[in-house]
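$ fold --in a.seq
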Amino acid sequence: MIIYFSGSGNSLAVARKIAEKTDDRLIHLNDAAETDLAGESVIGLIYPAYSWDAPLIVKSLVPRLSISPAAYVYIVVTCGSTPGNAIPTVIEILSKKGINVQYSRIISVPDSSAICFGNNANEQFDKFGRVPAAVDEIVRDVTERRQSLTHHKRGLQANFINSRAFFPIATWLVRQHVNNDKCIGCGICANVCPCKNIALISVLVLLCAAGFYVWGKTAMARAYWMPLAVSGVFLVAVAGGLFFANNPRIEKFQEHYQESPETFVQAELDRTAKSDHDLNLIVYTVLPIFVIVCGVLVVGFKDSTHTRAWLITLMLLGSFLMVVDSNTKARNSDYRTKLIEARE
């Protein structure tokens, strides 16, 4: 069984290649932490190095794994340069559970650290060319059940970077943001995000509803919980629909492009032209009118607490959707521009 965690997709790609060549099965770390793996004779752990250490989610979920002490356990870490303490951290966690790691290797892939490697990931694409040979070596060693540990000792720099004094400051200084100018709204990031952080806005709305219900002191405050709860459920449904639709959508796009790049580009130009027209109508006509009408009705129903709560919530939801659709319109335009450049 191969247990993987992947943020950008590099570790997932490596895990898939190793699973294919060893005829093994894949399971995400989130699911593995809730699964009894005691019957597995071979366990592979594949994950990236974050800030010269194992990702926080790996450090929090690996202790929950149920692995037999008799199992052959190996670790593969993907990283841009060196893994730091990514391997020894997990080795120490597993050793406390009486589990020995027999084999460890790293695979060099494009790094996601803009601090160390700059903002242009394209300059690192040559690293992908070395991945197949590294995978073949790991597959051979694992198949032969080799006992060989590399990068298994802690380093002074990694210890400092991940110390309690420095790490919180570093993560605050390099907190990440979405570049809306380059995002084309494909949804891949939301689909692969193991923590589902990008869909959490709906959960926050539901928490606000619960807060109004539990701690609301006035009639107006308590009146908000139901409309907020309905809005939260609506956003959950939308996020869930997009999440489950992304994989078939991406596969369909890939198939169409491989069949005929020219036909695909033209079809996408037609689709984005229609989307641009629809988004213009929604952003500049439908949603503004909806928000204005709700605002007028709020004034008209000033004596009805519950109706005002519903209308104000609908105003906020409409405003939120207007911002989202406005960003979608901008990304659609950028995507269309790139399609026109590709056709030319």
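$ fold --in b.seq
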Amino acid sequence: MDLPKGRTDQIFRLKKSNSYAKFHKRGTIVSKKKRPRPEDLNLPCVGVDTHAHLDLDPLHSEVEACLDRAGKSGVAAVGNVFLGSRAYSVNRELFSTHPRVFFILGVHPHEASIVDSTELDAINQALDQDPNIKAIGEIGLDFHWDRSPRDRQRSAFQAQLDLARDRNKPVVIHSREAEEETLDILLDMGFQDRPLLWHCFGGDSSLAEQILARGWMVSIPGTVTFPKSRALQEAVRGIPLQQMVLETDCPFLAPEPYRSKRNEPAYSVFTAQKIAEERQEPLTDIWEQTGQTAREFFGLDDAK
């Protein structure tokens, strides 16, 4: 995901934007264009949205309704990504009655300047106290926006990789226009064949092959449904389902047919539908296998 410059934890007010207000009112999409509902695909409740930001506005106030719609659409589990220890401590109680929401905790490269001994200690303490934190992330490098100095991004990334290794936790990677250096750091730090998920994968077959060859996973977002995402569409045809999971990155990156609208976990079904179309495989197979891959990667209780 991309964060606005200067954002600290939960101050991103997407709902104040004109585009959001135009299309949404109390969680209901208002549009003259009739769109298919995710529940109409009638998928079994085994899917996993591996990457969501339900604690960010505008979803923060709609957690109950969002998760209800997700369940009705076949989403059995959702990974909520907390962007730093403060976001975790303030918002974890939003999910106290939702056992199917698991947690991912880490500091985004945009906020690399907050990664110091105090922040790392707070994340470590959270890991000690909460077994529902299944991975460290999203961490990495973002040279597209460069909202933190690159040297700070590198040091924050490496410090959190050290933490993940020490705690034997999977890692969720954010890398934008920094793929080569991200790979170099991961390999230099001995992460080949360790549990690692490349979040919001948007690359081509060549990048996918480099990631897969190291024993890592890729997470496919809703952008695969966009007409111009031809390289990504080609890449998903060759990624083994045992190394592929789905994500929304909500409230961002809504897939077709809800592109440019607020995203939510239920819409992951449309990402699966596009992947099935590209691979010429049954939608239910894509849905079930990516869900199982996610459960195994994150060590969810119902993994077979």
